[in-house]
DNA sequence: GCGCACACGC
DNA sequence: GACGTACGTGTGCGCC
């Protein structure tokens, strides 16, 4: 393999980094900009150059051999700013963590070390790369030695090769020093010849070759004045050349084999980055705490081939391992149980066959601690085993304590609590295509380690939950909800497959015809689904005006295309094509792909521990974004039907739940009054914002007021509002201001919650759900503004999420106590979708609004609308 | 395999 | 006044 040596001019790069970046500092007030820039440069080099050898050279002390020939060398230099000097220690630490050798030599500059080593390396057949911010180094360039000089910032460089130098200066690389001798260097206080700058120097060297040849032939130089100067400062020019010449035979006591680069020390890099607050770099490197330093102590456990009372104790921690992301009808790889009697691994088939296990699992009195209990409940459910008594779910506890923390696997949450005797699933199972189930003994140990960690985590979490006043949220809301979600997921919702197929056929035909029209209007065939190709057709071939560009090209999003609709007939076809294409690929084909063919049902998976606000999310398929706004899309809902003939789909949704929550928490008299009188809130908002009477509210005013309310609920900025209303940001800002004047209680709330968040570092919902917002103190306007909107919005959206979750729990109880067969199948943020036998409709009409409206008591009534019909489409 | 642009819902 | 702006999931494209 070819050898590649990278030599870095440490002082120079640190200087460049320091002046290129703003004066960043970490949480302890230590300045970090030079180290940060240095790190960025180092990371780029390692990635792009992939060196086999590396060295960073530093200047040693204040005086060098150059001072003995010219005492004023580097005189008059500005003192290194203290903000920079203090960072050199960290730069050295950084290099040690990266295991990059560093070197300095008494009496010599970094340049000389680099020069000496680069020549040595070249002789031994290395490819050499020199990195500096100082153009002096370019004199080293040869066919094998490239010199990178930082241009702008720290990572943007010019590569000086002999060819590049020839082209740039018109002289060979080895004449750079002659140029310096003539023109001098103010930064190093090298005098040169007064009156000679770069241009004159180059002109002279092109004519005479070297400095020496020039000085011997000064009489031939054109221009009397120049002749005189050259004569007068002959010796000074020679001296200057000497000073500028890099010493290539410095007594470097550092052999090339000592510069071998073997990779960085992950642990040290992690710790240093943590200390310096380089969180973005940590993420970029994808390294976690002591990833390669994990020392697993031996662990004792028993592989059981049969069950005993010891294994099946109450208060056990249990892992039911399902490796696949989608746990419906998936294999269970193995089971681990940890309790006061010990640690056990149970092969899946033994457990599934065992009546003892079945009984123990289903018995409510046997309390279980788990991680992602919903996954276990559903997976076991498919195998005919009912898992009850799930008392403590560490995944949920971790999410409640801090929804921002990654809840990827047990190792992640365990490490956050200082437990390091468990490996990450990714390490044990692999990732991507290589992911697979390991041998039983490896699996057994992994699962037992996970269970042991959970066992310990439970105690730690209970303490934290109580401390945060979140224990009730955990035990009374999220834990019971997990069971309800498990039941909803297992139940699934029936899909009318033939209906979807016929819709697909119809849409397919329309798409084909639209495609044909588009090709005709474009005058050629292209991929309409490719924004890139579409952009070329619209903005280059058809010459439509470019309204907006994206990072990668022209924007072709719907709102932009709509602005162009009257400019060319192709636009309308493209918009229709997009709309139908989305229906076809996502909702027809996508849905058909995930229907279980034997039952014609889809079983979504709700993620209960993902969103920062407390909402659920839905995947595989996502049943929370089935079309409704446009009629063509809405028809997709005709394919969602009850699982029994003559049953109905019953849908109930909260009316304006977020704004009601806002009225409550902001305690705004005007808003409370509006809801107490059951006013149309958008009309009411329009009346107040536009100062008009009810009968003067135009549909446009109401539309704008609705957008403002939307903005309040979702925490969008004036910019966001301006985009949705297609008005200027200034006007959008005025709307918001007028809104806040009309609802002074809301205004006060918005101000207080931001202060509150600043002081406490987090905001809370009605039921004590937390969201930490550290960015609220950021100095960057954007980051801080976003944090402020988050602070305002999260209690609103999060409390609404709390309320519907509470309603789901109350609903499950009520359906049970009323002995009903109706079932809740889906939750879509503010609505619940049921399937119900016809003879239960009447009672649902009574109890569903009752339960939902009384989930919590606010200063305003909660209002629920409901509807039912033979399909989801009809429940409108 | 991944990031981007786009589009759907609340 | 900068800067890039609610949260999710899924799809196809185009690059590596």
UniProtKB/TrEMBL annotation:
Protein's UniProt keywords contain Hydrolase: yes
- Mark the transmembrane ranges: none
Name under which the protein is recorded: DNA polymerase I
EC number(s) reported in the record: 2.7.7.7
| Provenance organism | Litchfieldia salsa
Q: Where is the 5'-3' exonuclease domain?
A: 3-262
Q: Which Pfam families match?
A: 5_3_exonuc, 5_3_exonuc_N, DNA_pol_A, DNA_polI_exo1
The record, for PROSITE patterns, names: DNA_POLYMERASE_A
Q: Which gene encodes it?
A: polA
Q: Mind giving the lineage of the organism this protein is from?
A: Bacteria, Bacillati, Bacillota, Bacilli, Bacillales
The catalysed reaction is: DNA(n) + a 2'-deoxyribonucleoside 5'-triphosphate = DNA(n+1) + diphosphate
């Amino acid at each position: 393999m070819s050898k590649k040596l990278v030599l870095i001019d440490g002082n120079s790069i640190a200087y460049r980094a320091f002046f290129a970046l703003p004066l960043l500092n970490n949480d302890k007030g230590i300045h970090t900009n030079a180290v940060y820039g240095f790190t960025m440069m180092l990371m780029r080099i390692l990635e792009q150059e992939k060196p086999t050898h590396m060295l960073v050279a530093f200047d040693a002390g204040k005086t060098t051999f150059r001072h003995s020939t010219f005492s004023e060398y580097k005189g008059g230099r500005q003192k290194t700013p203290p903000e920079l000097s203090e960072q050199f220690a960290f730069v050295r630490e950084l290099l040690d963590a990266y295991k990059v050798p560093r070197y300095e030599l008494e009496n010599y500059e970094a340049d000389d070390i680099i020069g000496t080593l680069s020549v040595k390396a070249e002789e031994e057949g290395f490819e050499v790369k020199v990195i500096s911010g100082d153009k002096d180094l370019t004199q080293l360039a040869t066919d094998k030695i490239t010199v990178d000089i930082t241009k702008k910032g720290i990572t943007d460089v010019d590569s000086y090769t002999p060819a590049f130098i020839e082209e740039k200066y018109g002289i060979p690389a080895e004449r750079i020093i002659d140029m310096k001798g003539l023109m001098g260097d103010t930064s190093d206080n090298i005098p040169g010849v007064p009156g000679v700058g770069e241009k004159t120097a180059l002109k002279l060297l092109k004519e005479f070759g070297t400095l020496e040849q020039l000085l011997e032939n000064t009489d031939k130089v054109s221009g009397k004045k120049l002749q005189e100067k050259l004569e007068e400062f002959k010796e000074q020019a020679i001296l200057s050349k000497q000073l500028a010449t890099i010493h290539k035979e410095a007594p470097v006591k550092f052999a090339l084999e000592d510069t071998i680069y073997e990779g960085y020390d992950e642990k040290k890099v992690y710790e240093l980055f943590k200390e310096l607050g380089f969180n973005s770099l940590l993420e970029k490197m994808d390294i976690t705490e002591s990833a390669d330093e994990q020392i697993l102590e031996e662990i004792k456990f028993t592989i059981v081939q049969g069950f005993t009372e010891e294994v099946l104790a109450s208060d056990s921690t249990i892992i039911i391992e399902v490796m696949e992301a989608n746990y419906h009808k998936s294999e269970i790889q193995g089971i681990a149980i940890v309790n006061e009697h010990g640690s056990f691994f149970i092969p899946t088939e033994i457990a599934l066959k065992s009546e003892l296990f079945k009984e123990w699992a289903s018995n409510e009195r046997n309390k279980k601690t788990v991680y992602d209990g919903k996954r276990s409940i559903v997976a076991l459910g498919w195998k005919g085993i009912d898992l009850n008594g799930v008392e403590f779910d560490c995944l949920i506890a971790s999410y409640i304590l801090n929804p921002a923390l990654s809840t990827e696997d047990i190792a992640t949450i365990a490490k956050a609590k200082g437990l390091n005797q468990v490996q990450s699933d990714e390490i044990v199972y692999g990732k991507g295509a290589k992911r697979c189930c390991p041998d039983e003994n490896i699996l057994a140990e992994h699962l037992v380690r996970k269970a042991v960690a959970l066992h310990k985590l439970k105690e730690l979490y209970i303490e934290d939950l109580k401390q945060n006043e979140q224990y009730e949220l955990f035990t009374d809301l999220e834990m019971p909800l997990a069971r309800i979600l498990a039941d909803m997921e297992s139940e699934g919702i029936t899909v009318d497959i033939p209906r979807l197929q016929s819709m697909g056929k119809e849409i397919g035909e329309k798409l084909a015809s639209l495609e044909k029209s588009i090709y005709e209007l474009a005058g050629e065939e292209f991929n309409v689904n490719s924004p890139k190709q579409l952009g070329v057709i619209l903005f280059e071939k058809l010459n439509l005006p470019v309204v907006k560009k994206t990072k990668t090209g022209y924007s072709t999003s719907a709102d932009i295309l709509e602005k162009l609709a009257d400019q060319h007939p192709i636009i309308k076809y493209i918009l229709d094509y997009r709309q139908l294409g989305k229906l076809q690929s996502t909702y027809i084909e996508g849905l058909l792909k995930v229907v279980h063919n034997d039952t014609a049902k889809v079983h979504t998976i709700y993620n209960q521990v993902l969103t920062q606000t407390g909402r659920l999310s839905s995947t595989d398929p996502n049943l929370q974004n089935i079309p409704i706004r446009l009629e063509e899309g809405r028809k997709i809902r005709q394919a969602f039907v009850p699982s029994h003939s003559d049953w109905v789909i019953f849908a109930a949704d909260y009316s304006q739940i977020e704004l009601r929550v806002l009225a409550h928490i902001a305690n705004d008299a005007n808003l409370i009054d509006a809801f107490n009188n059951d006013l149309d809130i958008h009309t009411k908002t329009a009346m107040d914002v536009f100062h008009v009477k009810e009968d003067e509210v135009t549909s446009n005013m109401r539309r704008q007021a609705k957008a403002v309310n939307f903005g309040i609920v979702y925490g969008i900025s004036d910019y966001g509002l301006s985009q949705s209303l297609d008005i200027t940001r200034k006007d959008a800002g005025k709307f918001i201001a007028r809104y806040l004047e009309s609802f002074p209680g809301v205004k006060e709330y918005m101000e207080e919650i931001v202060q509150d968040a600043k002081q406490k570092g987090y905001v809370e919902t009605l039921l004590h759900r937390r969201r930490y917002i550290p960015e609220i103190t950021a100095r960057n306007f954007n980051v801080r503004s976003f944090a402020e909107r988050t602070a305002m919005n999260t209690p609103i959206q999060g409390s609404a999420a709390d309320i519907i979750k509470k309603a789901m729990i109350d609903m499950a109880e009520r359906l049970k106590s009323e002995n009903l067969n109706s079932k809740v199948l889906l939750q879509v943020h503010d609505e619940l979708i049921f399937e119900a036998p016809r003879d239960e409709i009447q009672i649902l009409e009574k109890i569903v609004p009752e339960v939902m409206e009384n989930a919590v008591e606010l200063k305003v009534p909660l209002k629920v609308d409901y509807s039912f019909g033979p399909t989801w489409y009809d429940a409108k």
